[in-house]
Design goal:
The complex is a heterodimer. Chain A is of the alpha/beta class. Chain A is built from nine helices and six strands. Chain A has a four-stranded parallel β-sheet with strand order 1-6-5-2. Chain A has a two-stranded antiparallel ribbon with strand order 3-4. In chain A, helix 9 links the parallel strand 5 and strand 6. Chain B has 18 helices and 24 strands. Classes of the chains: A alpha/beta, B alpha/beta.
Chain lengths: 240, 597
């Protein structure tokens, strides 16, 4: 009875008042899921991204120092990230990924969609970076799948889960650059039902650091006929 | 975390996250693959029509309240049931459209090919096991806290799971899914809330609790590990007469006044003689109510019982812990608050914020709940649930407040809660009755008027200026900085990163005027402090908040008098009530003959 009353009260309040929304990063009152101050602090909407690895660049150029010297990914046609993977933005991504709160991604859709449309050419398919089945079984969800499905649904672009992670690799976060590349060798494959792909795709992941995961996936996709691979991530590093 | 159904050759079954530990611990020889979240496995076994809800009898298993069912650790069933179970699992996985593609089948667990590698010696080492029991006793550990135990015990995740399984099989502990379904609703076992976010996972509909997220979010794919308290009653219980409140037993940091001694004695009577389940200690602000509880705490500790001192706010917890440590120096007093890293060191006397109490289950014999009417505890069913859950079934609660809520007073009226009064401050001076100053606080003239009042107050000591909102803290800190160029003026609010640092500076006397929201409204004693409440007629201020703010003055014996000024535009009911409340307390103190100031 008390519950029913409180629900009625809550719904009645909605008729008269607008629900106060708060910034997901700083907790201050904000009309958008991320307030303008946090957008400036973490998203740097005016700064370019490195085309090869998605890193946020401090000046107007197309490649970061690493990628200019040929150390970065080479098979990706363009990569973009929404924000700088640090501070409150990093904490939020980790809450989503490690603390079982993938539903938070839905609230971020209105930040993600305009950015991804602005940054990448239109695709035929949206593909998530897959997770190994053992890790998926433990976590219960793949944050990249949730993100890709949100993008696909909002933009009405077909979603296809066509990659498989056939090797249970050591988490990339625990490894250095060279080890990361070695760790992912032959880790991905295209599922048997899909072959002779001729599409342009958006490859979706949560975080990009060196770009090795995206690079490995892009290699497998291109080997199977995909024309262009563009990638989107929530977080990446920033070149100072 | 994924769980498996384990089977013995004699057709016994149980649930475990680690099939290999089952083989080592109890001769479980088969397990049903694939693993699923415990919640799903329980739903599958509960659905079987011929399932016998028999639970292996376990000794010393405490009675479980409706919210904490112990898992059926070993229902006895026949072989056919094994096949039915496998069929049911397959059907359920299809019906719920689970993304698990593995074949359902019974696999053998053999010593030679253990599915998980870990050091068997850890499981067999009694010293490590006892240390683990000591650490986790009375706790409910969520999956995201296991790493702390692993670190402190120096074991791996799988070794810890093995130790946990050992405790479950001995009947001292239970694995529990985070959510419990009651009819069509789901309740979080840690905080009792049914406020959750639903999302689709690999295993179908999944829920994340929204009310206890602050201490680490939990979802329905995860589990809670509860280790019941070892019952100390009977082993070390002393005769009540042998632990009468006797100040000669230990040297407290203060001499009890007549009023305090009377209150301590009454409290003793209620708890030890009347066995009152809940007692309200209604004391005047600055009456020394925490200290009045010392003899009671001492008696419980001497009986080897566990005591919790809980308060809704971090500031209060950090203020009380040193006072307790000073008086109970032989105990290592554990402090738990969001400001400190978590550890598992057990303690007989724990001081914690009410949020941290959610980590305990039937752990304490005595809970002293300070500032019961303060935010965020007041009106929070989750925090109240946490306190009740942390109390042992035979435990007792003492609620301390200077401003009891209508709800607790009605429980006193209906005799569900007993009451003890402490109307006088320890130094014998009355609580200063607030003065009222009309000032709209708009325009330059009002600032001049305010400055005049503050200049009067500053001659007696530093000033605590209360304002109702964070925006007003920022605005009035600026205004007062301009008005008092030669004085140090600072402001702080709950989410201010420098809050603790500024509070310490104010305590040390390095800040002259400290503007703040209700953060310093309670539980803080600062020598010689004077109080000004700006916008005292604000809707946010009820009578209790005003009494608390005014009660910051004249608390210490060195400066027993002080002034509290309410700056207002329009007189409110809360202001009248606050003054009346303070005057009533002072009158009662006078009647008791406790005033000498």
């Amino acid at each position: 009875m008390v519950d029913l009353f409180s629900k009625l009260k809550e719904n009645a309040a909605l008729l008269w008042y607008e629900k106060t929304a708060y910034c997901l990063l700083c907790g201050n009152v904000s009309a958008e899921p991320v307030c303008l101050i946090c957008q400036q602090t973490y998203f740097f909407p005016d700064l370019p991204r490195c085309d090869s690895c998605g890193k946020i660049l401090a000046e107007t150029k197309t490649r970061c120092r690493n990628c200019e010297t040929g150390k970065g990914p080479k098979r990706l046609d363009k990569v973009t990230c929404l924000g700088h993977y640090k501070g409150a933005w990093k904490e939020l991504v980790q809450q989503i990924k490690y603390k079982g709160q993938p539903y938070l991604l839905a609230s971020l859709a209105e930040m993600i969609i305009p950015w991804v449309i602005r940054s990448l050419p239109p695709p035929d398919l949206v593909i998530p970076v897959p997770m190994h089945r053992d890790r998926l079984a433990q976590r219960g969800f793949n944050q990249a799948e949730v993100l890709a499905s949100i993008i696909s649904r909002q933009l009405v672009i077909p979603y296809q889960d066509l990659l498989d992670r056939i090797k249970d690799t050591i988490p990339q976060t625990t490894l250095g650059r060279r080890q990361r590349l070695r760790n992912l060798r032959d880790a991905f494959s295209v599922k048997p039902d899909y072959s002779d792909l001729r599409e342009i795709v958006w490859l979706i992941d949560d975080v990009v650091t060196t770009g090795s995961t995206l690079e490995e996936c892009a290699g497998v996709l291109k080997k199977n006929g995909v024309k262009k691979v563009y990638a989107f991530c929530l977080g990446a590093g920033k070149e100072e | 975390m994924l769980f498996y159904i384990l089977a013995k050759d004699n057709e016994e079954f149980c649930f475990s996250p680690l099939p290999s530990a089952g083989l080592i611990l109890g001769g479980w020889t088969r397990y049903l693959s694939p693993g699923l979240p415990l919640e799903k496995l329980l739903a599958i076994t509960a659905e079987l029509p011929d399932k016998k809800p028999t639970v292996q009898p376990v000794s010393a298993q405490p009675a479980t309240p409706p919210f904490s069912p112990v898992l059926p650790s070993a229902p006895v069933i026949n072989r056919d049931f094994e096949n039915k179970l496998a069929q049911k699992l397959t059907k359920r996985m299809k019906k719920e459209n689970m993304g698990v593609r593995e074949k359902v089948w019974w696999q053998n667990i053999s010593r030679e090919a253990l599915p998980e590698a870990f050091n068997i010696e850890v499981l067999q080492n009694e010293t490590i096991y006892q240390e683990f029991l000591r650490m986790a006793e009375g706790r409910q550990l969520a999956e995201n806290e296991f790493w702390i135990v692993e670190k402190e015990l120096g074991v791996s995740t799988k070794e810890l799971l093995g130790l946990m399984q050992k405790a479950v099989q001995s009947g001292n502990a239970a694995w529990l899914p985070i959510f419990e379904q009651v009819r069509s609703r789901y309740f979080c076992r840690r905080c009792g809330s049914s406020h959750y976010e639903e999302w689709p996972s690999l295993y179908g509909d999944t829920y994340t609790c929204l009310d206890c997220r602050e201490i680490g979010p939990l979802n329905s794919l995860q589990i809670l590990f509860r280790l019941h308290s070892v019952d100390v009653v009977g082993q070390t219980q002393m005769d009540t007469d042998k632990c009468e409140p006797d100040q000669t037993v230990r040297n407290y940091s203060l001499e009890f006044t007549f009023a305090q001694e009377k209150a301590a004695g009454e409290l003793w009577q209620q708890v030890h003689r009347q066995k009152a389940k809940e007692t309200l200690l209604w004391a005047a602000c600055g009456a020394g109510k925490t200290e009045v509880c010392f003899p009671l705490i001492d008696s419980f500790l001497r009986q080897n019982k566990k005591v919790l001192f809980a308060a809704p706010r971090q500031d209060v917890v950090h203020d009380v812990q040193p006072r307790l440590q000073k008086n109970f120096s032989e105990y290592n007093i554990k402090i738990l608050s969001g400001a400190l890293p978590q550890d598992m060191e057990p303690s007989k006397l724990t001081v914690a914020t009410t949020h941290q109490v959610l980590r305990f289950y039937q752990a304490f014999h005595l809970i002293i709940l300070d500032e019961t009417d303060a935010y965020p505890y007041e009106g929070s069913s989750v925090l109240e649930y946490g306190i009740r859950q942390a109390l042992r079934p035979d435990g007792q609660i003492i609620c301390l407040t200077a401003t009891p809520s209508a709800e607790i007073l009605s429980r006193v009226k209906s005799r569900e809660c007993t009451i003890v009064r402490l109307p006088a401050r320890h130094h014998g001076f009355p609580v200063p009755v607030p003065e009222w100053q009309k000032n709209r606080l708009t325009g330059d003239r009002s600032v001049v008027k305010l400055k005049k009042i503050l200049l009067e107050l500053i001659t007696d000591g530093p000033i605590l200026v209360f304002v109702p909102t964070v925006a007003l803290v920022k605005e009035w800190t600026g205004v007062l900085k301009t008005a008092f160029g030669d004085l140090c003026v600072e402001g702080s609010w709950s989410s201010d990163a420098a809050r603790r640092k500024k509070t310490v500076l104010f305590r040390q006397g390095d800040i002259d005027i400290f503007v703040c929201t209700s953060i310093l409204e309670r539980g803080i004693t600062i020598k010689g402090v004077q109080v000004a409440v700006l916008f005292a007629d604000h809707a946010l201020y009820d009578a209790r908040a005003l009494v608390q703010m005014a009660g910051r003055t004249g608390r210490s014996a060195e400066c027993p008098v002080g002034r509290a000024v309410f700056i207002y535009a329009k007189q409110t009911r809360a202001m009248i009530e606050a003054n009346r409340w303070i005057q009533d307390q002072n009158r009662l103190a006078e009647e008791w003959g406790c005033l000498n100031g």
